[in-house]
Structure formats: structure tokens, C-alpha cells
Design brief:
By secondary structure, the chain is α+β, with helices and mostly antiparallel strands. The strands form three sheets. It has a four-stranded antiparallel β-sheet with strand order 2-3-1-4, sandwiched between helices. A four-stranded antiparallel β-sheet has the order 7-8-6-9, sandwiched between helices. Helix 9 runs antiparallel to helix 10, helix 10 runs antiparallel to helix 11 and helix 10 packs parallel to helix 12. The longest helix has about 35 residues. It is elongated.
């Protein structure tokens, strides 16, 4: 440690150790004030615009279509009735009569359910994809207040469904993308406690086994618990001040990150304390020396992680910008609690923190096996072979990344027995998977409404495209005459616009539907020309269009955020290591490891599960976290080597420093991987994918990159300095 670092770290350590009781009291007061006066972390139950952003072309197209046609064709909630043996004529009649009754109430302003329009569709012969099959399914689209959030839309649909007699009408339930989003939020809220309980149990086990102690896990869990309490309240207050509710997907990640990062920092302080007591230091002296040694490392590590995840605000996608500040606050809270609470507790507890097997004076806990491994890696030819072999394996693992397909928030992300998914499956059996969330295609050109022949020709061309199950357009009439007189359906009243409703033959928010719409958009100029509609302006609305818009905006965001993260990490590593070459290969190794992990994630979920594509935010969030946490471990491991290399040759510094840090880094990595892995306890596809990517990513980083690749690269960087020492091996 440099003299300047030692000076301020010494002063800080002295203050915390001497004022340990004051520090503990102050932290208790801070937590009490946060819990008492700051709001808890909330959840977003708003529309998809809250994820995509109101600047989305799909949202603009939907708003413009409502203004021009005066009648919305798109809704995100529906009631499904289904009988595989066929709905009897009386049941079909009741479907229509119920909708007419609600529509009459809405026109008279007497409706109490919040439903403004009910549009029933029955898969009669000629409408269903099966041709002459009996009518088995009725889907009643419900149009509510456009400003209503997902919860209110779903509640209105349940009120409508409550009037249906299930035995005679074969009610399956309420479904659609609004109930899907509302259900996902409920599932997260109901299961986040299991993530907390599981993480606490696993962290306790790992820390307890590592230090052979009962109290060491208690110190770690207290640190993690206070971190999460402060994080949840600070993020909740920030959301309230800015008017933006944190997405439901954020809370399990905050739980895992707060537990993982706080555990990491606690483990390093505990490891330092254990070595100090093993040297025979008195408890306060050991706590002070540990704080002096680890404070600069923890500070730069936290700054690296916080700066990296905060780089998400450089993204244009609303959801990514929401993730960044919350994750950064989590890391900063972990830093605040770790550098105050842990040194103070160590100074109070002393040897008791490692009860019942406190370290014996004269033992340094050196890992002889790790020392032999690192000594072998200091041979340049061995280092070269190891570096080439691991790099090749990582490149090979990254190859499936070329097949990555992003999905939005598919219905198949829900458990199979979830009522919303069951109702969706019933509708899909009758019409096709995309029936509950069709895509609206709007054509704009003066006088286009009068060109009926060309519009019909285009409708036929669209219907023949891959992935399209059904197209409704100007030649179709599905509304009663009295409603058709009051609003345009497929032709705008001003004659300057026409539209189609396209039902895709795939989960509308899945990767397959997004790809089908991307392909259709690409072919649309050709289809317009073939139908004598060349030069017509085309726009797209609907959930699949929103998903495609989001996926397309994600790709430039990935590049933008990756550049920012690389610059932030590189700058901090250069400042900390006072070198240029080492930060470059450390960062390169981190990005290569990330590519390999995302390749493995793609391979697993594309081929070993039923899921179609990876939910769009998973690679993004996993990438930001893994790169930043990889730099975090670089600071810990390479920081030891840097300190030792000031007093001894690089070869000896590697042999001494890396085994010294490996045990703590291994324990920290296992705890972090377990915390992230337990996010899979939330039974949604996106959390399974995120848990796999983060859990495997941390393990690859700790046990492959930091244990083998980085020491090999450091050996090769040292170059000729090591050649003189090879004869001593």
C-alpha cells in the first residue's frame, strides 16, 4: 500500500475501532430513520410504455390509430370460453348478448365495470385456422380506460367474467398481456421472500464452513440485511421523488446483489482479521490492521461495480435506465455498511467472531496446494499453454451467442398451471397463439380507403407470409351495424388510412413472433408494390411491435453501455493498479468470460428448455453485473499482487499473494453465485435465465478466469523478469 493510502486508511481505521460503540449506535439510528421515514420499494403496474418508453414508434402508431379511426382495435385483456367438444349455440349466443349489453351500458354511460367496449370473436368455420372445425372457443376482447394500469384492466375483466356461468358457458378465465404483466408482479412479490430465505441459508453455510465459525455468518448476514433495508428504502424514496415506480424485476436482483456484495466485502474483512489474530495481534490491533489493508481495496472495488452498473443510465431503454441507479445504490449501501459495521464488530468481538475454532497464533492459513499451482503457472511456457487453452475454451463456449434470440415477456414465462397461461392456451388452441395480442398494421395515404381492390390484395399477401395465422381487414366485419356507424373499423372516416389486424401463429411476446414481425416489416415494401400500393406509409402497433421495438433499441444500447462500462472500469483499474497493460487484459478477460457465459445461457435455454429465446433484459443485466463484479474480483486479487510486488520480484509476489487471496475470493464467489442462483426460486422464465447467467458467470470468473487465466496472463506480462527465476522452481 502506498504511503498516502496508508495514512488516510490508518486515520479512518483508528476512528472506527476506537469509536466502535458510537459507530454501531449511529448505524442503528440510520436504519431506524430509514425504515421509519422513507417509503419501501414499490413495483410498477403500469403499461408497457413504462418499459419501452413513450417515444416508441409502436406506441405512437397506436395513439395515432385511435385518433384517426376513433375505435381502438388493440386491447391487452380478454375473457376466454373454451370447450374442446364444441360450444353449443346457446353458449355462443350468450357470448354475443353479454357483450352487447355491456356495450349498450357503455354508450349510455351507465357501466359499472370499467369496460368501455366488449368485442366477442368466436372461431366459427372459416375464421379458425382449422377450417371446418366446430366452434370451440370464444374470446371476448375488453377495452377499458387506456390510462388504466395493468391491475385495473385485469380487475375490470374479472368483473366481466364474474357474470359468466362456468358450467354452461365453459369459462376458462381472464388472460392477455395486461393480466400477464400483473401476474408476473404478483409472482415476484409472493416469491421474493424465498429468495431472501434461501440466500440467507446458503450464505450462512458457506461463510460458516469457510471460517469454521458460528458468529462469522452472523456478522455477514447482519451486514447484508442492513444493506438491503437501506437499499430498499433509498431506492423507494428515489422512485417516489422521480415519479417512477421500480419494475418488479428489480427486487429479486436487489436482494441477491445486496446479499452477495455485502457478503463479499464481509468475507475479505473477516479473512484479514483471521490472519491478524493468527499472527498474535490483539483484537483491536488486528481489526485496525485489517481495516487499513482492505479499506482502499473495498473502496475501489465498490466504485468499480457502482460505476459499471450506473453506466446503464446511458441506455435509451426506460427499463435499463431504471435498473442502473437501483443497482448502484445497492453497491454503495453495501460499501457504507461494510466499512463501518464490520470493522466495528470485529473490534468488539475479537477472537469470539471465529468461535468455536478461533485461529491459533503462528498459523497463517496459507493454501499450500494453491501455492504449488501458482508456482507452476509462473513458468512462462506453462502460462502460455494455460492462457491459450482457457481462451480457446471461452471462445468455443461463446459461439452459441450467435444464435441468441430475444423475447419480450412471453406467456410461456408463467408456470404451466397459472390461470392466465391456462386461459391463453385455451385461446391459442381455438385461434392460434397470437389471437390475444394481434398486431395492427396502419397504412396512410390520401384516398387509400377507396382503393378497396388493392387493400384486399395486400390483405391476401400478408396472410400468406410465414408466421401469420389470420388477417382481418377492410373486407371483414365483426362489429354490429350500430357500432360500425359510430366509428371506423378498418377504414378511417377521413379516407386517408386503412388498417389490418394480424394474428401471428406464435406467442406474441416470444422470440418467434418478434422474428416473424421483423421479417414481415422487411418484406412490406415488396408486398405494397405487388398490391399497387407503393409509396404508402406503414406503421405497426401492438405488443409484438412493442417487443420488436424494444429488441431493436436494445442492440445499440448494448454497444453504448458496453463502451461506458469499459471506460469506467479501465479508468478505475488504471488508477488503482498504476499500470496500463494489466487493466487492458483484465478487462478483455472479463468480456471474453461474459461472452462465454451468455453463449452457454443461450445454448441451454434454446435447446434444453421449452423457452423460445432469452428475455431481452437478461443478457443486458447479466452483462453489466458480471463485467463489474469481475473487475471487483480483479481489484481484490491483483491488488494483493501489486502490494507484494513492491518488495519482491513478480514471480514471488504471485506465489505469495494469489494463494493468500484465493480462499477468500473462492468463498465470496460461491456466496455470490449462490445468491444469484437462488433468484431462480421466482418461477418466471426471466428469473431462471438471469439466475443461470449470473450464477454460472460468477463461478466461471472465480474458478477459471481469476484462478487460472489471470495468473497466466500476469506471468506472461512479467516476461523476462520471471525467466531468471525459473530455475528455482
Amino acid at each position: 500500500m502506498a504511503a498516502g493510502e496508508r495514512s488516510w486508511a490508518n486515520r479512518y481505521a483508528a476512528v472506527v475501532v476506537r469509536g466502535r460503540w458510537l459507530v454501531l449506535t449511529g448505524l442503528a439510528g440510520l436504519v431506524y430513520a430509514a425504515v421509519s421515514f422513507l417509503p419501501p420499494l414499490g413495483h410498477s403496474s403500469g403499461g408497457l410504455a413504462g418499459v419501452v418508453g413513450t417515444e416508441s414508434e409502436a406506441i405512437s402508431a397506436q395513439v395515432e390509430a385511435v385518433q384517426r379511426f376513433r375505435l381502438p382495435l388493440l386491447t391487452r385483456v380478454a375473457v376466454v370460453e373454451h370447450d374442446p367438444g364444441g360450444l353449443n349455440p346457446y353458449a355462443q349466443a350468450r357470448v354475443v348478448l353479454r357483450a352487447l349489453a355491456v356495450n349498450k351500458e357503455a354508450l349510455q354511460g351507465t357501466t359499472q365495470s370499467g369496460v368501455r367496449l366488449a368485442l366477442p370473436v368466436i372461431n366459427r368455420p372459416g375464421l379458425a385456422a382449422g377450417g371446418g372445425a366446430p366452434a370451440t372457443t370464444a374470446v371476448t376482447y375488453l377495452f377499458t380506460d387506456p390510462a388504466a394500469d395493468f391491475g385495473k384492466q385485469t380487475e375490470a375483466a374479472h368483473q366481466y367474467a364474474a357474470a359468466i356461468d362456468p358450467p354452461g358457458d365453459h369459462l376458462v378465465g381472464v388472460t392477455g398481456t395486461a393480466p400477464l404483466q400483473a401476474e408476473q408482479t404478483t409472482i415476484v412479490r409472493d416469491n421474493v421472500r424465498w429468495v431472501e430465505i434461501g440466500s440467507v441459508a446458503v450464505v450462512s453455510l458457506i461463510v460458516g464452513v469457510t471460517f469454521r465459525s458460528v458468529l462469522a455468518p452472523a456478522v455477514t448476514l447482519l451486514t447484508a440485511g442492513l444493506t438491503y433495508l437501506l437499499t430498499a428504502r433509498v431506492v423507494g424514496a428515489g422512485a417516489e421523488l422521480t415519479g417512477f415506480s421500480a419494475p418488479a424485476q428489480l427486487e429479486p436482483v436487489l436482494v441477491a446483489l445486496s446479499l452477495g456484495v455485502a457478503t463479499d466485502y464481509s468475507i475479505f474483512f473477516l479473512a484479514g482479521m483471521q490472519r491478524g489474530l493468527a499472527r498474535g495481534d490483539e483484537r483491536r490491533a488486528a481489526a485496525r490492521a485489517t481495516t487499513v489493508e482492505y479499506l482502499p481495496i473495498v473502496l475501489i472495488a465498490a466504485a468499480t461495480v457502482a460505476g459499471s452498473v450506473l453506466a446503464l443510465v446511458a441506455a435509451e431503454t426506460t427499463m435499463f435506465r431504471a435498473f442502473g441507479p437501483g443497482l448502484a445504490v445497492t453497491v454503495l449501501m453495501a460499501l457504507l455498511v461494510s466499512v463501518t459495521l464490520v470493522p466495528a464488530l470485529l473490534a468488539v468481538l475479537g477472537r469470539a467472531v471465529f468461535w468455536p475454532l478461533p485461529p491459533r497464533p503462528g498459523t497463517d492459513g496459507q493454501d499450500d496446494g494453491a501455492g504449488r499451482t501458482v508456482r507452476l503457472l509462473t513458468r512462462r511456457w506453462v502460462a502460455a499453454v494455460v492462457a491459450v487453452a482457457i481462451t480457446s475454451l471461452l471462445v468455443l463456449a461463446a459461439l452459441p451467442l450467435r444464435e441468441l434470440r430475444e423475447s419480450f415477456s412471453p406467456m410461456t414465462s408463467l408456470p404451466r398451471d397459472n390461470p392466465v397461461r391456462v386461459a391463453w392456451q385455451a385461446a391459442a388452441d381455438g385461434f392460434g397463439p397470437g389471437v390475444l395480442s394481434p398486431t395492427e398494421i396502419i397504412l396512410s395515404r390520401p384516398g387509400i380507403a377507396s382503393d378497396v381492390g388493392s387493400l384486399s390484395a395486400l390483405q391476401g399477401e400478408i396472410a400468406r407470409q410465414p408466421g401469420v395465422a389470420r388477417v382481418l381487414g377492410p373486407q371483414d366485419f365483426t362489429l354490429p351495424p350500430q357500432l360500425r356507424q359510430q366509428a371506423g373499423l378498418f377504414l378511417a372516416p377521413d379516407g386517408g388510412a386503412a388498417r389490418y389486424l394480424v394474428v401471428l401463429d406464435a406467442d406474441p411476446l416470444g422470440a418467434e413472433a418478434v422474428e416473424d414481425l421483423r421479417r414481415l416489416e422487411g418484406r412490406m415494401p415488396e408486398l405494397l408494390a405487388a398490391s399497387d400500393l407503393g409509396g404508402t406509409s406503414v406503421s405497426y402497433a401492438g405488443d409484438t411491435a412493442l417487443g420488436l421495438s424494444l429488441v431493436q433499441s436494445t442492440r445499440p444500447d448494448v454497444v453504448r453501455v458496453a463502451v461506458v462500462i469499459a471506460l469506467v472500469d479501465l479508468l478505475l483499474l488504471v488508477l488503482f493498479l498504476r499500470a496500463v497493460v494489466a487493466p487492458l487484459y483484465l478487462l478483455a478477460a472479463g468480456f471474453l468470460s461474459l461472452a462465454a457465459v451468455l453463449g452457454l445461457t443461450t445454448l441451454f435455454f434454446e435447446h434444453a428448455t421449452e423457452e423460445q429465446g432469452i428475455v431481452f433484459f437478461v443478457p443486458f443485466a447479466a452483462g453489466a453485473l458480471l463485467i463489474s463484479l469481475g473487475s471487483d474480483y480483479s481489484v481484490f486479487s491483483v491488488g494483493y499482487v501489486r502490494a507484494e510486488s513492491r518488495n519482491r520480484p513478480m514471480r514471488e509476489a504471485l506465489v505469495v499473494a494469489i494463494p493468500r487471496s484465493r480462499r477468500a475470493i473462492t468463498a465470496a464467489g460461491l456466496a455470490l453465485a449462490a445468491s444469484f442462483g437462488l433468484v431462480a426460486l421466482v418461477p418466471l422464465a426471466q428469473f431462471r435465465e438471469l439466475a443461470f447467467a449470473l450464477g454460472v458467470g460468477v463461478l466461471v470468473d472465480v474458478f477459471v478466469v481469476r484462478s487460472w487465466l489471470i495468473p497466466a496472463l500476469m506471468t506472461l506480462e512479467a516476461g523476462r523478469e520471471l525467466e531468471t527465476g525459473e530455475e528455482d522452481c
